[in-house]
Amino acid sequence: MSGEMDVIxxxxxxxRTDLWPFWRRAYAAGDPLPRIACAVSRETYRFDEGDPLPxxxxxxxxxxxxxxxxxxxxxxxxxxxxxxxDLAEALYPTREARVIKAEYLxxxxxxxxxxxxxxxGLDRDFALRDVPYAHYTFHLPRETWAxxxxxxxxxxxxxxxxxxxxxESSYVPLAKMAATVERDELGHSEMGxxxxxxICADGRGRTLCQRLLGKWYPAALDMFGRSDSKxxxxxxxxxxxxxxxxxxxxxxQGYVDAKLIALGLEPxxxxxxxxxx
Length: 277
Ligand SMILES: [Fe+2]
Prior knowledge:
- The protein is mostly helical and 277 residues long.
- It contains eleven helices and no strands.
Protein backbone atom coordinates (compact mmCIF):
# COMPACT_ATOMS: atom_id res chain seq x y z
CA MET A 1 0.00 0.00 0.00
CA SER A 2 2.63 2.60 1.02
CA GLY A 3 4.41 2.13 -2.37
CA GLU A 4 1.23 3.27 -4.14
CA MET A 5 0.79 6.27 -1.81
CA ASP A 6 4.41 7.21 -2.50
CA VAL A 7 3.73 7.21 -6.23
CA ILE A 8 0.82 9.67 -5.83
CA UNK A 9 2.86 11.81 -3.48
CA UNK A 10 5.81 11.62 -5.84
CA UNK A 11 3.59 12.69 -8.75
CA UNK A 12 2.40 15.66 -6.70
CA UNK A 13 5.92 16.64 -5.68
CA UNK A 14 7.28 16.36 -9.20
CA UNK A 15 4.41 18.63 -10.30
CA ARG A 16 5.55 21.46 -8.09
CA THR A 17 6.66 24.63 -9.86
CA ASP A 18 7.24 28.19 -8.66
CA LEU A 19 3.49 28.65 -8.90
CA TRP A 20 1.87 25.25 -8.35
CA PRO A 21 0.40 24.36 -5.94
CA PHE A 22 -0.78 27.86 -5.09
CA TRP A 23 -1.76 26.92 -1.53
CA ARG A 24 1.89 26.84 -0.45
CA ARG A 25 2.29 30.60 -0.61
CA ALA A 26 -1.12 31.17 1.01
CA TYR A 27 -0.35 29.01 4.06
CA ALA A 28 3.30 30.10 4.28
CA ALA A 29 2.06 33.49 5.44
CA GLY A 30 0.01 31.93 8.29
CA ASP A 31 -3.60 30.71 8.34
CA PRO A 32 -5.27 32.30 5.30
CA LEU A 33 -8.87 31.41 6.24
CA PRO A 34 -11.03 32.70 9.08
CA ARG A 35 -11.74 30.48 12.06
CA ILE A 36 -15.11 28.72 11.89
CA ALA A 37 -16.23 27.78 15.38
CA CYS A 38 -19.50 26.58 16.81
CA ALA A 39 -20.98 29.19 19.15
CA VAL A 40 -23.77 27.04 20.58
CA SER A 41 -23.44 24.26 23.14
CA ARG A 42 -24.32 20.88 21.69
CA GLU A 43 -23.93 17.13 22.24
CA THR A 44 -20.70 15.62 21.02
CA TYR A 45 -21.26 12.93 18.40
CA ARG A 46 -18.66 10.80 16.64
CA PHE A 47 -19.44 8.28 13.95
CA ASP A 48 -16.87 6.32 11.98
CA GLU A 49 -17.25 4.37 8.76
CA GLY A 50 -19.44 1.32 9.25
CA ASP A 51 -20.96 2.61 12.49
CA PRO A 52 -24.76 2.43 12.66
CA LEU A 53 -26.00 5.96 11.88
CA PRO A 54 -29.20 7.52 13.19
CA UNK A 55 -31.62 7.91 10.28
CA UNK A 56 -31.71 11.72 10.48
CA UNK A 57 -27.92 11.90 10.63
CA UNK A 58 -27.52 9.65 7.58
CA UNK A 59 -30.07 11.74 5.66
CA UNK A 60 -28.30 15.02 6.50
CA UNK A 61 -24.83 13.63 5.76
CA UNK A 62 -25.96 12.29 2.37
CA UNK A 63 -27.71 15.60 1.61
CA UNK A 64 -24.49 17.49 2.44
CA UNK A 65 -22.33 15.17 0.33
CA UNK A 66 -24.70 15.46 -2.63
CA UNK A 67 -23.50 19.07 -2.92
CA UNK A 68 -19.90 17.87 -3.15
CA UNK A 69 -20.05 16.61 -6.69
CA UNK A 70 -16.47 15.46 -7.03
CA UNK A 71 -16.97 11.69 -6.77
CA UNK A 72 -15.59 9.15 -9.24
CA UNK A 73 -19.05 7.53 -9.43
CA UNK A 74 -20.78 10.79 -10.34
CA UNK A 75 -21.09 10.96 -14.16
CA UNK A 76 -21.92 14.68 -14.00
CA UNK A 77 -18.61 15.37 -12.27
CA UNK A 78 -16.61 13.61 -14.96
CA UNK A 79 -18.58 15.50 -17.61
CA UNK A 80 -17.88 18.76 -15.80
CA UNK A 81 -14.18 18.01 -15.70
CA UNK A 82 -14.29 17.50 -19.47
CA UNK A 83 -15.79 20.95 -20.01
CA UNK A 84 -12.95 22.41 -17.97
CA UNK A 85 -10.44 21.28 -20.59
CA ASP A 86 -12.63 22.65 -23.39
CA LEU A 87 -12.72 26.02 -21.64
CA ALA A 88 -8.96 26.05 -21.15
CA GLU A 89 -8.44 25.33 -24.84
CA ALA A 90 -10.91 28.01 -25.90
CA LEU A 91 -10.20 30.79 -23.39
CA TYR A 92 -6.75 30.46 -21.84
CA PRO A 93 -4.13 32.76 -23.41
CA THR A 94 -0.97 30.67 -22.86
CA ARG A 95 0.20 27.08 -22.69
CA GLU A 96 1.49 27.76 -19.18
CA ALA A 97 -2.00 28.75 -18.04
CA ARG A 98 -3.47 25.62 -19.66
CA VAL A 99 -0.88 23.43 -17.92
CA ILE A 100 -1.85 25.00 -14.59
CA LYS A 101 -5.49 24.22 -15.34
CA ALA A 102 -4.50 20.59 -16.04
CA GLU A 103 -2.77 20.48 -12.63
CA TYR A 104 -6.05 21.67 -11.11
CA LEU A 105 -7.92 18.88 -12.89
CA UNK A 106 -5.46 16.26 -11.67
CA UNK A 107 -6.08 17.42 -8.11
CA UNK A 108 -9.87 17.36 -8.51
CA UNK A 109 -9.55 13.80 -9.77
CA UNK A 110 -7.55 12.97 -6.64
CA UNK A 111 -10.50 14.37 -4.65
CA UNK A 112 -12.81 12.19 -6.72
CA UNK A 113 -10.96 9.14 -5.36
CA UNK A 114 -11.18 10.42 -1.79
CA UNK A 115 -14.90 11.30 -1.94
CA UNK A 116 -15.66 8.07 -3.78
CA UNK A 117 -14.05 6.11 -0.97
CA UNK A 118 -16.10 8.03 1.55
CA UNK A 119 -19.32 7.54 -0.42
CA UNK A 120 -18.78 3.77 -0.80
CA GLY A 121 -18.21 3.54 2.96
CA LEU A 122 -21.49 5.34 3.57
CA ASP A 123 -23.85 4.03 0.89
CA ARG A 124 -22.90 2.11 -2.28
CA ASP A 125 -26.00 3.30 -4.15
CA PHE A 126 -25.12 6.89 -3.33
CA ALA A 127 -21.55 6.29 -4.53
CA LEU A 128 -22.95 5.44 -7.99
CA ARG A 129 -25.57 8.17 -8.10
CA ASP A 130 -25.36 10.75 -10.87
CA VAL A 131 -25.92 14.16 -9.27
CA PRO A 132 -26.04 16.96 -11.88
CA TYR A 133 -24.74 20.35 -10.75
CA ALA A 134 -27.96 22.02 -9.64
CA HIS A 135 -26.77 25.40 -8.40
CA TYR A 136 -27.03 28.13 -11.06
CA THR A 137 -23.43 29.22 -10.45
CA PHE A 138 -22.24 26.11 -12.30
CA HIS A 139 -24.30 27.14 -15.32
CA LEU A 140 -23.32 30.79 -15.61
CA PRO A 141 -21.77 31.39 -19.05
CA ARG A 142 -17.98 31.36 -19.03
CA GLU A 143 -17.17 33.41 -22.12
CA THR A 144 -13.82 34.89 -21.14
CA TRP A 145 -10.69 33.85 -19.28
CA ALA A 146 -11.81 36.26 -16.55
CA UNK A 147 -15.10 34.35 -16.16
CA UNK A 148 -13.22 31.11 -15.61
CA UNK A 149 -10.80 32.83 -13.23
CA UNK A 150 -13.75 34.10 -11.17
CA UNK A 151 -15.28 30.62 -11.17
CA UNK A 152 -12.16 29.20 -9.56
CA UNK A 153 -11.49 32.12 -7.23
CA UNK A 154 -15.06 32.06 -5.86
CA UNK A 155 -16.44 28.53 -6.29
CA UNK A 156 -13.37 26.54 -5.25
CA UNK A 157 -13.15 28.95 -2.31
CA UNK A 158 -16.65 27.84 -1.32
CA UNK A 159 -15.23 24.30 -1.20
CA UNK A 160 -12.32 25.48 0.97
CA UNK A 161 -14.69 27.13 3.49
CA UNK A 162 -16.86 24.01 3.71
CA UNK A 163 -13.79 21.80 4.15
CA UNK A 164 -12.58 24.14 6.90
CA UNK A 165 -15.89 23.50 8.69
CA UNK A 166 -15.43 19.70 8.31
CA UNK A 167 -12.29 19.75 10.44
CA GLU A 168 -14.60 19.45 13.46
CA SER A 169 -17.03 17.08 11.74
CA SER A 170 -18.69 14.34 13.78
CA TYR A 171 -18.25 12.03 10.76
CA VAL A 172 -14.69 10.77 11.20
CA PRO A 173 -13.90 9.94 7.54
CA LEU A 174 -14.82 13.51 6.57
CA ALA A 175 -12.83 15.08 9.41
CA LYS A 176 -9.81 13.04 8.32
CA MET A 177 -9.78 14.41 4.78
CA ALA A 178 -10.87 17.98 5.63
CA ALA A 179 -7.42 19.58 5.90
CA THR A 180 -6.25 18.16 2.54
CA VAL A 181 -9.44 19.19 0.72
CA GLU A 182 -9.35 22.67 2.32
CA ARG A 183 -5.73 23.19 1.32
CA ASP A 184 -6.25 21.99 -2.26
CA GLU A 185 -9.45 24.01 -2.75
CA LEU A 186 -7.80 27.12 -1.43
CA GLY A 187 -5.02 26.45 -3.94
CA HIS A 188 -7.61 26.29 -6.74
CA SER A 189 -9.10 29.56 -5.55
CA GLU A 190 -5.64 31.13 -5.50
CA MET A 191 -5.13 29.85 -9.06
CA GLY A 192 -8.21 31.82 -10.11
CA UNK A 193 -6.98 34.81 -8.15
CA UNK A 194 -3.57 34.57 -9.83
CA UNK A 195 -5.27 34.72 -13.24
CA UNK A 196 -7.43 37.65 -12.09
CA UNK A 197 -4.33 39.52 -10.98
CA UNK A 198 -2.83 39.04 -14.46
CA ILE A 199 -6.04 40.21 -16.13
CA CYS A 200 -6.34 43.25 -13.83
CA ALA A 201 -2.78 44.32 -14.63
CA ASP A 202 -4.16 46.70 -17.24
CA GLY A 203 -7.08 49.11 -17.23
CA ARG A 204 -9.16 47.22 -19.79
CA GLY A 205 -8.78 43.98 -17.88
CA ARG A 206 -9.75 45.63 -14.61
CA THR A 207 -12.84 47.18 -16.21
CA LEU A 208 -13.86 43.76 -17.51
CA CYS A 209 -13.33 42.15 -14.09
CA GLN A 210 -15.32 44.90 -12.36
CA ARG A 211 -18.20 44.34 -14.78
CA LEU A 212 -18.14 40.54 -14.43
CA LEU A 213 -18.38 40.86 -10.64
CA GLY A 214 -22.03 41.76 -11.16
CA LYS A 215 -22.55 38.21 -12.44
CA TRP A 216 -20.25 36.16 -10.22
CA TYR A 217 -20.39 37.89 -6.82
CA PRO A 218 -24.13 37.42 -6.07
CA ALA A 219 -24.00 33.85 -7.37
CA ALA A 220 -21.06 33.05 -5.10
CA LEU A 221 -22.89 34.40 -2.04
CA ASP A 222 -26.02 32.46 -3.05
CA MET A 223 -24.08 29.17 -2.97
CA PHE A 224 -24.36 29.13 0.85
CA GLY A 225 -28.15 28.76 0.69
CA ARG A 226 -30.87 30.56 2.62
CA SER A 227 -30.08 32.24 5.92
CA ASP A 228 -33.34 30.87 7.35
CA SER A 229 -32.62 27.27 6.33
CA LYS A 230 -34.54 24.94 8.62
CA UNK A 231 -31.85 22.28 8.29
CA UNK A 232 -29.04 24.46 9.65
CA UNK A 233 -29.81 23.83 13.35
CA UNK A 234 -29.98 20.08 12.62
CA UNK A 235 -26.60 20.06 10.87
CA UNK A 236 -25.11 21.97 13.79
CA UNK A 237 -26.81 19.78 16.41
CA UNK A 238 -25.40 16.60 14.87
CA UNK A 239 -21.92 18.10 14.53
CA UNK A 240 -21.97 18.03 10.73
CA UNK A 241 -21.59 21.81 10.55
CA UNK A 242 -20.38 24.36 13.08
CA UNK A 243 -22.22 27.48 11.91
CA UNK A 244 -25.32 28.35 9.90
CA UNK A 245 -25.52 29.56 6.29
CA UNK A 246 -25.57 33.25 7.20
CA UNK A 247 -22.44 33.00 9.34
CA UNK A 248 -20.29 31.03 6.88
CA UNK A 249 -21.45 33.40 4.12
CA UNK A 250 -20.47 36.42 6.27
CA UNK A 251 -16.97 35.00 6.84
CA UNK A 252 -16.63 34.15 3.16
CA GLN A 253 -17.75 37.60 2.02
CA GLY A 254 -15.24 39.28 4.35
CA TYR A 255 -12.43 37.19 2.86
CA VAL A 256 -13.54 37.80 -0.76
CA ASP A 257 -14.03 41.56 -0.35
CA ALA A 258 -10.52 42.02 1.03
CA LYS A 259 -9.07 40.06 -1.90
CA LEU A 260 -11.07 42.06 -4.46
CA ILE A 261 -10.05 45.39 -2.95
CA ALA A 262 -6.40 44.26 -3.10
CA LEU A 263 -6.83 43.98 -6.89
CA GLY A 264 -8.29 47.48 -7.12
CA LEU A 265 -11.83 46.14 -7.59
CA GLU A 266 -14.94 47.33 -5.78
CA PRO A 267 -17.07 44.64 -4.12
CA UNK A 268 -20.70 44.97 -5.29
CA UNK A 269 -23.70 45.50 -2.99
CA UNK A 270 -24.06 42.04 -1.34
CA UNK A 271 -27.86 42.20 -1.53
CA UNK A 272 -28.02 43.04 -5.25
CA UNK A 273 -29.15 40.38 -7.79
CA UNK A 274 -29.38 37.72 -5.10
CA UNK A 275 -31.68 34.69 -5.35
CA UNK A 276 -31.10 33.15 -1.88
CA UNK A 277 -30.73 35.60 1.00
FE1 LIG B 1 -11.46 22.67 -6.53
